[in-house]
Amino acid sequence: MPFPRGIVCMPEQHSEFPVTRSFHSPASSPATCCPKDVLRPELLDWSSYHVPDSSGMVKLDAMENPYSLPAELQREMGTILARAPINRYPDAGCTALKSRLRDYLSVPNGCEILLGNGSDEIIQILCMAVARPGATIMGVEPSFVMYRVSAAAAGATYVSVPLTDDFQLDLQQMLEVMRNRRPALVFLAFPNNPTGNLFRRADVMQILDAAPGLVVIDEAYHAFARQSLMSELVSRPNLLIMRTLSKLGLAGLRLGMVVGRSAWIAEFDKLRLPYNVNVLSQLAADFVLSHVDLLERQAEQLLLERQCIIDALQGTPGVQVFPSDANFVTFRVADACAVFDGLKQRQVLIKNLHLAHPMLRNCLRVTIGTPAENRMFLHALNELDWIRENVHVG
After folding, report:
1. What is the pLDDT along the chain (394 residues), one digit of tens a residue?
2. Could you tell me the CATH number of the domain that includes residue 375?
3. Handedness of CA 269, 272, 278, 281 (dihedral sign)
4. 3-class SS at 141?
5. Whether residues 160 and 108 fall in one domain
6. Torsion of CA 88, 89, 92, 96, to 10 degrees
7. Do residues 377 and 366 lie in contact, with contact meaning Cβ atoms separated by under 8 Å?
8. What's the domain range around 147?
9. DSSP character string of 158-200
10. Do 157 and 213 share a structural domain?
């Protein structure tokens, strides 16, 4: 590969890759060099992803499974992890874990799995892969913020189409934008985060039919929605399905994945960093998936608790509840910031969506917890003065 003038490529001993060395002088001396001199200008205006401190709180803000493994399985997994060869690099191909996941996910023949350090890494890889000069990546708003962030980080243009008032796809607007902008990649969360609802399947299929490039269906909340487009991979070569184990109870392992035709996965794999899934995550995930019936029972319990939360909120004056197919419920009140602060003062942490998007004005999102955690949330909510004084939601 040719290199620009002034750049010399010199193979280093013990290195598989050439090392580039520049003989140009920097624009500023080391003593005066600062971020604005060398970083991308748009990066300076960004904010890092904020995770609030939840110490001592009833934690209902991050769509986690609140249940731990039973003590017997904890001990058994501890024994397995204690024997892990942590002095060696992990299996780069995650061979055993992928085999387990193929069965669990019902991956069709002719398709493969790419694993990432959480779904965030998968999103990043997909955006990097399609980010040709002038490339457009498309999504909807409001939706998962990392689609936009990863597209911008890859240097692509991100175009979003607002959802309708009931948080469904504005199908005609989306089709028009696709015709005009020709996106290389379209992200659709199914169910959507942070609204919680499934989009109409017929609308999603029309997007798949019309898309000039790839369509990624993010099924992070599949365990609670019980709908999937995995079987559509057989007949739709431009479809990719994302999944995660985080919502099932393995958020601490940081394990996300994308399933697609083998030809696509082979190309995306070129952008995966070596050894991106550590040995402890591989062994722990493989072990827990051998007891997947336990995770499914926990999901069933969360579905029951979700309905209890919905029923209680619907019976609360001043609360507008939105339909949910996920492990959280989004609702609107008269003053989201006051309610959020009041709950936090009572050691209950949920998510304030008020400033996330104009369509989420005065909206809050509560993750479904254990029965005890849910009771504490509802008790704290009903203690707030706004329940009695502010019944207008608009």
Report:
1. 444 444 444 444 444 444 444 444 455 566 688 998 899 888 888 888 888 888 899 999 999 999 999 999 999 999 999 999 999 999 999 999 999 999 999 999 999 999 999 999 999 999 999 999 999 999 999 999 999 999 999 999 999 999 999 999 999 999 999 999 999 999 999 999 999 999 999 999 999 999 999 999 999 999 999 899 999 999 999 999 999 999 999 999 999 999 999 999 999 999 999 999 999 999 999 999 999 999 999 999 999 999 999 999 999 999 999 999 999 999 999 999 999 999 999 999 999 999 999 999 999 999 999 999 999 999 999 999 755 455 444 4
2. 3.90.1150.10
3. negative
4. strand
5. yes
6. 40
7. yes
8. 90-290
9. EEEEE--TTS---HHHHHHHHHHH--SEEEEESS-TTT-PPPP
10. yes
What's the pLDDT score for residue 353?
98
Q: Are 107 and 244 in contact (CB under 8 A)?
A: no
User: Is the same domain home to 230 and 142?
Assistant: yes
Question: Residue 348 — φ and ψ, nearest 5°?
Answer: -120, 120
Tokens of 63: 């769509």
Other CB atoms within 10 Å distance of the CB of residue 170: 16
Phi, psi of 82 (to 5 degrees): -65, -25
Q: How far is CA 210 from CA 164, 172, 177, 239, in A?
A: 20, 11, 11, 12
3-state secondary structure 224-266: HHCCCCHHHHHCCCCEEEEEECHHHHHHHHCEEEEEEEHHHHH
Tokens 């995930």 — which residue?
A: 285
Amino acid 344 reads: K
Quick one: 113 and 173 in the same domain? yes
CB–CB of 288/77 below 8 Å? yes
For residues 304 and 279, state if they share a domain. Answer: no
Q: Mention every residue, 6+ apart, whose C-beta is less than 8 A from residue 265.
A: 111, 112, 113, 114, 258, 259
187 to 129, 160, 216, 289, 291: CA distances (angstroms): 14, 10, 5, 27, 31
- Maximum Cα interatomic distance, the chain, rounded to a whole number of Å: 73
Short-list 97, 117, 95, CA closest to 105: 97
User: Structural domain tally of the chain?
Assistant: 2
Backbone angles phi, psi at 136, to 5 degrees: -115, 135
Flag whether 79 is in a domain.
Answer: no
